[in-house]
């Protein structure tokens, strides 16, 4: 290891920055964040540094650097554009065992500034020891997306309980067990949704050993299948859950991302083959939460669009179970984007209707006169089996048989297939191409834009999709 990562407390400690320009200003700001006592030495200073000095935040010494400026300093940064000055700073500091950093000259650094993920008081530092700062920055960006914002407030809250916990539990092992329980509890999600009061009350309860573990349910939309379309929140909750309740629409790649040791329960629904009744799923969620479990109820697309999310949340609310709802990209949005079909377009469609081809058992008919109106797009979910009926009704009520249609099977997934046809030929094309679930029908002039705008058949996207585009005009 070339550099030992340590976090230093610079509160009021004397540090020196040699230089008076933009680079010196940047380093000076980093030191000020850590509340160091900063002196800068240079023949002249930029206006921002003069401002910091006028606010009594830094001391400016207008002079050429000499060894005496190092007196009493813990750290020094050489941030001038003069190589020989930088070299001198390095040699003199090194001779005195003062930590030194020459900006952009890694061999002349006895300390370095890592890339930082800042969730104060949690701080993550990443360093490539000067070999690949851009790579370190990219790693930092990855971590930024993975580490939730509420981690900082959570650390602050639990920090305020440390003394109480120490007083309550004399043995280290007991304290550790208590904290494990806290981080597995709904204290975390309370902080996550900004309920600091609730989290504080629960911590007090846990400390008095009064609070039962409180379960909760996250109703999470997983999008149409491409795992990269998951929201950050969805991913975080999937990795926080004790139990994941899922159905067939959630892709395998997405299921691979749930917490490794979570219990998985499939309540899969396939048309005509409801393996678990909806009422049983609702009850299952309530029961699991009542056992104190954190339950991730993960659903394809968006939970509130043809996903029965509404029904499940109603039951949770009736039983006073805590829940969070995370929207997902619905199939119409995901499939159309990946097929290069804008759902609205000023020249072709001023409205969009989301429609289900699979109605409730009371046989209630769709409003065909409204659906057959021109200048709108229909995104039809679960429409494959009913396609002969859909086709016949739309034509009967006035939609032209030549209206463009796209059938998108396994949208956004590696196996995505797009069949382009027209309304008069819809059912026959579905049969001919053996379209399987999940598939979405897009009916309207915009579907014809697929030929122009399909993008996964070109450039970088081609490798992500194993199946070639099927175009049947
Ligand atoms: C029960 S609905 C669930 C919809 C989901 N909640 C959503 O917002 O996308 C299932 C239907 O959504 C459509 N669907 C979902 N994912 C799809 C995908 N990746 N490709 C094509 N259609 C999809 C299909 O019409 C499928 O039959």
Automatic annotation (TrEMBL):
<feature type="region of interest" description="Uroporphyrinogen-III C-methyltransferase">
    <location>
        <begin position="215"/>
        <end position="473"/>
    </location>
</feature>
<feature type="binding site">
    <location>
        <position position="224"/>
    </location>
    <ligand>
        <name>S-adenosyl-L-methionine</name>
    </ligand>
</feature>
<keyword id="KW-0560">Oxidoreductase</keyword>
<comment type="function">
    <text>Then it catalyzes the NAD-dependent ring dehydrogenation of precorrin-2 to yield sirohydrochlorin. Finally, it catalyzes the ferrochelation of sirohydrochlorin to yield siroheme.</text>
</comment>
<feature type="active site" description="Proton donor">
    <location>
        <position position="269"/>
    </location>
</feature>
<dbReference type="InterPro" id="IPR014777">
    <property type="entry name" value="4pyrrole_Mease_sub1"/>
</dbReference>
<dbReference type="Pfam" id="PF13241">
    <property type="entry name" value="NAD_binding_7"/>
</dbReference>
<feature type="binding site">
    <location>
        <position position="305"/>
    </location>
    <ligand>
        <name>S-adenosyl-L-methionine</name>
    </ligand>
</feature>
<dbReference type="GO" id="GO:0009236">
    <property type="term" value="P:cobalamin biosynthetic process"/>
</dbReference>
<dbReference type="InterPro" id="IPR050161">
    <property type="entry name" value="Siro_Cobalamin_biosynth"/>
</dbReference>
<dbReference type="InterPro" id="IPR035996">
    <property type="entry name" value="4pyrrol_Methylase_sf"/>
</dbReference>
<dbReference type="GO" id="GO:0043115">
    <property type="term" value="F:precorrin-2 dehydrogenase activity"/>
</dbReference>
<feature type="binding site">
    <location>
        <position position="382"/>
    </location>
    <ligand>
        <name>S-adenosyl-L-methionine</name>
    </ligand>
</feature>
<dbReference type="InterPro" id="IPR028281">
    <property type="entry name" value="Sirohaem_synthase_central"/>
</dbReference>
<keyword id="KW-0597">Phosphoprotein</keyword>
<keyword id="KW-0808">Transferase</keyword>
<dbReference type="InterPro" id="IPR003043">
    <property type="entry name" value="Uropor_MeTrfase_CS"/>
</dbReference>
<protein>
    <recommendedName>
        <fullName>Siroheme synthase</fullName>
        <ecNumber>2.1.1.107</ecNumber>
        <ecNumber>1.3.1.76</ecNumber>
        <ecNumber>4.99.1.4</ecNumber>
    </recommendedName>
</protein>
<keyword id="KW-0520">NAD</keyword>
<feature type="binding site">
    <location>
        <begin position="300"/>
        <end position="302"/>
    </location>
    <ligand>
        <name>S-adenosyl-L-methionine</name>
    </ligand>
</feature>
<dbReference type="InterPro" id="IPR006366">
    <property type="entry name" value="CobA/CysG_C"/>
</dbReference>
<comment type="pathway">
    <text>Porphyrin-containing compound metabolism; siroheme biosynthesis; precorrin-2 from uroporphyrinogen III: step 1/1.</text>
</comment>
<feature type="binding site">
    <location>
        <begin position="22"/>
        <end position="23"/>
    </location>
    <ligand>
        <name>NAD(+)</name>
    </ligand>
</feature>
<dbReference type="GO" id="GO:0051266">
    <property type="term" value="F:sirohydrochlorin ferrochelatase activity"/>
</dbReference>
<dbReference type="Pfam" id="PF10414">
    <property type="entry name" value="CysG_dimeriser"/>
</dbReference>
<dbReference type="InterPro" id="IPR037115">
    <property type="entry name" value="Sirohaem_synt_dimer_dom_sf"/>
</dbReference>
<feature type="domain" description="Siroheme synthase central">
    <location>
        <begin position="119"/>
        <end position="144"/>
    </location>
</feature>
<feature type="binding site">
    <location>
        <position position="411"/>
    </location>
    <ligand>
        <name>S-adenosyl-L-methionine</name>
    </ligand>
</feature>
<dbReference type="Pfam" id="PF00590">
    <property type="entry name" value="TP_methylase"/>
</dbReference>
<dbReference type="InterPro" id="IPR012409">
    <property type="entry name" value="Sirohaem_synth"/>
</dbReference>
<dbReference type="Pfam" id="PF14824">
    <property type="entry name" value="Sirohm_synth_M"/>
</dbReference>
<comment type="similarity">
    <text>Belongs to the precorrin methyltransferase family.</text>
</comment>
<feature type="active site" description="Proton acceptor">
    <location>
        <position position="247"/>
    </location>
</feature>
<feature type="binding site">
    <location>
        <begin position="43"/>
        <end position="44"/>
    </location>
    <ligand>
        <name>NAD(+)</name>
    </ligand>
</feature>
<dbReference type="GO" id="GO:0032259">
    <property type="term" value="P:methylation"/>
</dbReference>
<dbReference type="InterPro" id="IPR000878">
    <property type="entry name" value="4pyrrol_Mease"/>
</dbReference>
<comment type="similarity">
    <text>In the C-terminal section; belongs to the precorrin methyltransferase family.</text>
</comment>
<comment type="pathway">
    <text>Porphyrin-containing compound metabolism; siroheme biosynthesis; sirohydrochlorin from precorrin-2: step 1/1.</text>
</comment>
<dbReference type="InterPro" id="IPR019478">
    <property type="entry name" value="Sirohaem_synthase_dimer_dom"/>
</dbReference>
<dbReference type="InterPro" id="IPR014776">
    <property type="entry name" value="4pyrrole_Mease_sub2"/>
</dbReference>
<dbReference type="GO" id="GO:0004851">
    <property type="term" value="F:uroporphyrin-III C-methyltransferase activity"/>
</dbReference>
<dbReference type="GO" id="GO:0019354">
    <property type="term" value="P:siroheme biosynthetic process"/>
</dbReference>
């Amino acid at each position: 290891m070339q550099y030992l990562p340590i976090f230093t407390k610079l509160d009021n400690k004397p540090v020196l920055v040699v230089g008076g320009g933009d680079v010196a200003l940047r380093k000076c700001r980093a030191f000020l964040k850590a509340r160091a006592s900063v002196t800068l030495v240079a023949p002249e200073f930029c206006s921002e540094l003069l401002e910091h000095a006028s606010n009594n935040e830094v001391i400016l010494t207008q002079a050429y650097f000499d060894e005496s400026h190092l007196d009493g300093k813990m750290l020094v940064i050489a941030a001038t554009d003069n190589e020989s000055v930088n070299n001198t700073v390095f040699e003199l500091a090194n001779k005195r065992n003062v930590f030194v950093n020459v900006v952009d000259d890694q061999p002349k650094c006895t300390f370095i500034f890592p890339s930082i993920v800042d969730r104060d008081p949690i701080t993550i530092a990443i360093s490539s020891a000067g070999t690949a700062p851009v790579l370190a920055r990219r790693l930092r960006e990855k971590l930024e997306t993975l580490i939730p914002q509420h981690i900082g407030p959570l650390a602050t809250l639990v920090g305020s309980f440390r003394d109480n916990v120490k007083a309550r539990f004399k043995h280290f092992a007991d304290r550790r067990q208590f904290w494990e329980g806290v981080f597995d509890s709904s204290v975390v999600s309370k902080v996550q949704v900004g309920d600091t009061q609730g989290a504080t009350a629960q911590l007090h309860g846990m400390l008095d050993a009064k609070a039962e573990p409180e379960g909760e349910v996250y109703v999470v939309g997983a999008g149409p299948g491409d795992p990269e379309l998951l929201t950050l929140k969805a991913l975080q909750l999937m990795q926080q859950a004790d139990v994941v309740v899922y159905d067939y629409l959630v892709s395998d790649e997405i299921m691979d991302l749930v917490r490794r040791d979570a219990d998985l329960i499939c309540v899969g629904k396939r048309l005509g083959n409801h393996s678990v009744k909806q009422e049983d799923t609702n009850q299952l969620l309530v029961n699991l939460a009542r056992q104190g479990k954190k339950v991730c109820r993960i659903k394809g697309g968006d939970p509130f669009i043809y996903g029965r999310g509404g029904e499940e949340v109603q039951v949770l609310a009736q039983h006073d179970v805590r829940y969070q709802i995370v929207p997902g990209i619905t199939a119409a949005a995901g499939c159309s984007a990946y097929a290069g079909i804008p759902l609205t377009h000023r020249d072709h469609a001023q409205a969009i209707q989301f429609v289900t081809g699979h109605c409730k058992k009371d046989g209630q008919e769709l409003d065909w006169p409204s659906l057959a109106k021109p200048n709108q797009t229909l995104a039809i979910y679960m429409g494959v089996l009913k396609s002969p009926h859909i086709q016949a009704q739309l034509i009967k009520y006035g939609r032209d048989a030549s209206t463009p249609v796209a059938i998108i099977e396994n949208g956004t997934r590696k196996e995505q297939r797009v069949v382009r046809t027209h309304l008069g030929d819809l059912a026959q094309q579905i049969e001919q191409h053996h379209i399987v679930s999940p598939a979405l029908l897009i009916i309207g002039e915009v579907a014809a834009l697929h030929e122009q705008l399909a993008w996964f058949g070109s450039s970088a996207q081609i490798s992500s999709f194993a199946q070639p585009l099927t175009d049947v005009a």
